[in-house]
Amino acid sequence: MHMETPHGEVTTPAFMPVGTRAMLNYLTPHDLKEGGNEIILGGNTYHMLCAPGLEVIEQLGGMHRMMAWDRAMLTDSGGFQVLSLSKNGKICIVDEEGAHFKHPISGKIIHLNSISSIQAQKVIGADIIMAFDQCTPENGGREAALAALDRTHRWLIQSIEEHQKQPDNAYGSRQALFGIIQGGSFRDLREKSTEFVLNQELDGIAIGGEVIGFDMPKTAEIIDWIRPMLPDNKVRYTMGVGLHPQDLIDVVSKGIDIFDCVAPTRNARHGTLYCGQIVEQDDWLAFEGFEGHSRIHIKKSIYAKDDGPIMPDCDCYTCQNFSRGYLHYLYKEGLIAYFHLSSIHNVHVMQSVCRRMQELILSFD
């Protein structure tokens, strides 16, 4: 599938590296383009409200211009951060009117709801924006899942109404709006939510909730529940999938088009580097590690004098120029160059997996 956006075409399946605070840690737009990235998740609405604030973003010409990123961008509505913050009632309270949270620095009360989230995403200017939702917690049981689902549906209608008042962003470019399927780990609620979301006028369908991406067997089961209901002509997005390269392969085998995760860059910063080979297996693909491990921990002393690349046959800038031994040294010394080079590699591996999937899917046609 190809997604057309005001900032270029995106070939799916596509992994979206995450720049929660309007930048990807230790990666530049040049790095991302060299790695073949066509779309990023470039700014979370909650964090953008906190800093630098919508006035600054608008004055600087929107997120694309501010970040010097001229390709496609999706932004998060802030719903997941609301879930995280609401676990501490002193920081954030969620009710029917939305989320009420304290600014982490000034202490000022900020209101984020279905209306203000869409308005903020107009200023951010992303090509794909998300309806405001209440992310379903996994430990609340059926009652909590049902309450979050019903509230998400009410907020979806309000998000659509606000978006339709002005489908373009603040800079004159059309934005696509995605709705989010909730329902936790309950099949009937997932099916109910899917039916409701599909009945709305939306450009794409996202599958959300705390379990998605966090528990991959359950993620796969939830996709299987609702997959027969999903139309072929709308983009399918699993939110938060991408802890491991194999996770991408698994959800694409079930019909998913796009996904995002902070893990590749976070893992890199903490010394965990993807290492394996993409192989054909059972008419599909698998990411097979060497000696049973699909990643290495560069801090280990066994890499101190290793002059090989992180991953054999990897064509990323890091593997083409630097050894495991050098990266081990940089990591142990806490040097910034390590964070840059390791992040390049991990994101590149995710994109390499996507390219192989794209090629194999084309061969099926």
Strand order of the largest sheet: 3-13-12-11-10-9
Outline: globular
Count the DSSP helices.
14
Q: What's the N-to-C terminus distance?
A: 12 Å
What's the number of extended β-strand segments? 17
Poorly predicted tracts of residues: none
Q: What's the average pLDDT? A: 94
Fraction in beta strands: 15-25%
Helix content: 40-55%
Largest sheet at a glance? Answer: 6 strands, parallel
- Round the Cα radius of gyration to an integer and report it: 20 Å
By helix and strand content, what is the structural category?
A: alpha/beta
List keywords for this structure.
single chain, about 375 residues, 3-stranded antiparallel beta sheet, globular, 6-stranded parallel beta sheet, 17 strands, alpha/beta, 14 helices, about 40% helix
Write the layout of secondary structure elements.
Blueprint: E1 2-5, E2 8-11, E3 14-17, H1 29-34, E4 39-44, H2 45-50, H3 54-59, H4 63-67, E5 72-76, H5 79-86, E6 92-95, E7 98-102, E8 109-112, H6 114-124, E9 128-130, H7 141-165, E10 176-181, H8 187-198, E11 204-207, H9 216-226, E12 235-238, H10 245-252, E13 258-261, H11 263-269, E14 272-274, E15 276-281, E16 284-289, E17 295-297, H12 317-321, H13 324-333, H14 336-364
Parallel strand pairs: 3-13, 4-5, 9-10, 10-11, 11-12, 12-13
Antiparallel strand pairs: 1-2, 6-7, 7-8, 14-17, 15-16
Helix pairs in contact: 6-7, 7-8, 10-14, 11-14, 13-14
